[in-house]
Write a structure and sequence with these properties.
Keywords: ATP-binding, Metal-binding, Nucleotide-binding. This protein is α+β, with helices and mostly antiparallel strands. It has a domain of 106 residues: 2-Layer Sandwich (D-amino Acid Aminotransferase, Chain A, domain 1). A 5-stranded antiparallel beta sheet has the order 3-2-1-4-5, with helices on both faces. A hairpin with a 2-residue loop joins β1 and β2. It is globular, with a radius of gyration of 23 Å.
Length: 221
């Protein structure tokens, strides 16, 4: 293939014995929480589940776990997916590291809730006083939602609540399991102000790890 674009390229050594299969290792807080064997179903080199590959839970050797943890520590990624290629002698080499790791296929194959594990890890990084405050707010919120007589604050018919006017539109994506949102336009009875302005796309360096670090910093300041 000809290189047609003036852009950087990454070339990797071809590992023949691992053609069409790899092991996805997910780490949270520098700890391996599970591993999944991914296999291509059409003879292609890529084994991504989003490209038609299938995944199944598999045990990982101590060497594989140590290699994944080492890569996570070197790159400074608290939450990540490390893809390993297995050689004929059973040892592993690194294929790639994913900061924005997909959860859906991994959850289905391993019977796990990665999002819940990540949330628990994020809460564990907060000061204990702030954690207790958030727990109290959660209890109050739950009590309010189950109340049989919710308080209703009437508003003028021609004015929307400020919270609604300030809502912004965003989007989420996953490295391997994109989810499509319903974009069907809904009928409206009247025009209410200008359409919201979509935010600019984030910088390529923006990933879950930087998001987590920034949110923790804001909550603890």
């Amino acid at each position: 293939h000809l290189i047609r674009h003036d852009a950087p390229y990454l070339f990797q050594e071809y590992v023949k014995e691992s053609h069409g299969r790899d092991v996805r290792v997910v780490l949270v807080g520098g700890r391996v929480i599970g591993s999944m064997l991914r296999c291509s179903t059409d003879g292609r080199m890529q084994s991504n589940c989003s490209l038609g590959g299938v995944g199944m839970m598999c045990p990982l050797s101590e060497q594989g776990k140590q290699l994944a943890v080492q890569v996570s520590n070197i790159l400074g990624m608290d939450v990540c997916g490390i893809d390993l290629l297995q050689l004929n002698d059973g040892s592993f080499v690194v294929c790639e590291a994913n900061a924005n790791v997909g959860f859906i296929a991994f959850d289905q194959a391993c019977g796990m809730d990665v999002a819940g594990i990540v949330a628990d890890y994020a809460l564990s990084l907060l000061p204990s006083r702030l954690t207790r405050k958030m727990s109290l707010l959660s209890v109050v919120s739950s009590a309010s939602e189950t109340s049989s007589e919710p308080e209703v604050c009437p508003a003028p018919s021609n004015v929307l609540p400020e919270a609604v006017c300030n809502m912004s539109v965003g989007s989420t994506s996953s490295e391997s399991d994109p989810e499509l949102a319903d974009t069907t336009p809904q009928p409206t009875s009247r025009q209410v102000g200008p359409s919201p302005v979509l935010p600019n796309l984030p910088d390529p360096a923006y990933n879950f790890n930087t998001l987590l670090a920034n949110e923790i910093k804001l909550l603890t300041e």
